[in-house]
Amino acid sequence: MRPADVSMPSAIASRPRDPRGYPVPAITPWEGGVPQFASLSMRRVFLCVTQRRCTVCGLEVPPGPLWRVVDGEEAEMLAEVLAAGVGGKFQNAAPTQEGPGHRLCMIYSAMVCPFLGGPEARRGEAANSYGEQIPRGEARGQKGGVAAYDGCEFRSTPVGPGVVYGHPLDLIEYERGEDLLDELNKALADEAGTVVGPCPEWLLDDEAATEAAFVRAMRGPEEDARARAERRAAQLRKKRQKQAKASRRRNR
Ligand SMILES: [Zn+2]
After folding, report:
1. CB 245: neighbour CB atoms within 10 A?
2. CB neighbour class for 101 (10 Å; exposed up to 12, middle 13-18, buried from 19)
3. Which range among 56-65, 85-94, 187-196 shows the weakest confidence by mean pLDDT?
């Protein structure tokens, strides 16, 4: 389905768009003013996960379940686990590059994202996921799902850093984007009237702002305080030099 075919959640409506009108997700990197849909910025994923922000709209996710879109194999596995009532004992320890978000944003993405929309939907570019090469043109699989988890973490693992999800709580299965229309409309009705806050600039179209936010986040509170103090000291030095110069001029 195209964005013109369905109503857009207001959290997504304020995203930057590409020339076709597709809203650009918070985790998509930009290059020279052009969104790079085929790639995904792990810095943006890191910022979203550590700040509990939605990887689609960039806004904060309130306490409660975190949602993500899963492919056919993952959906089948989760369906079995949930049907057996053992979701609380099950955790997939493998990291993924896919970050979580709002239920509504994930339902919308599953319907509109060209790769997620249907069984014959194909990946536009090859990707490398933890050593497993996913070829260009790989199909999504017969089914897809929008899954809820009780949490997630950005973690370094033996195969590389990524998002590790907690226990699964719920699953909405679908084959084609259209199958989710009822769920979307119900979720849109719930969203109506809720306050949609501004998305920080580092999750919009400015990669330099993303980079700066990532560096800040990696520094940790102590180093951050030290860097702030150094900046203040430098400003103070400049101010004093200026004052000294001005007083020399006055005394001439
Ligand atoms: Zn969202």
Report:
1. 10
2. buried
3. 187-196
In tens, the pLDDT along 152-185 reads: 999 999 999 999 999 999 999 999 989 999 999 9
Please give the single-letter amino acid code of residue 152.
C
Q: Could you tell me the distance, in angstroms and rounded to a whole number, from the CA of residue 84 to the centre of ligand 1?
A: 30
CA of 74 to the centre of ligand 1 (A): 22
Cβ atoms of 116 and 140 within 8 Å: the answer is: yes
Distance 85 CA to ligand 1 centre (A): 28
- What spacing in Å lies between the alpha carbon of 125 and ligand 1's midpoint? 25
Query: What count of residues does the chain have?
Result: 252
CB contact set of 109 (below 8 Å; sequence gap of 6+) = 25, 56, 69, 116
**Cα–ligand 1 centroid distance for 39 (angstroms):** 19
CA dihedral (159, 161, 163, 166) positive or negative? positive
Q: How many whole angstroms from 23 Cα to the centroid of ligand 1?
A: 12
Nearest to 102 by CA among 26, 174, 17: 26
Q: How far is residue 147's CA from residue 169's CA, in Å, rounded to a whole number?
A: 8
CA of 54 to the centre of ligand 1 (A): 5
Q: Where are the domains of the chain?
A: 3-205
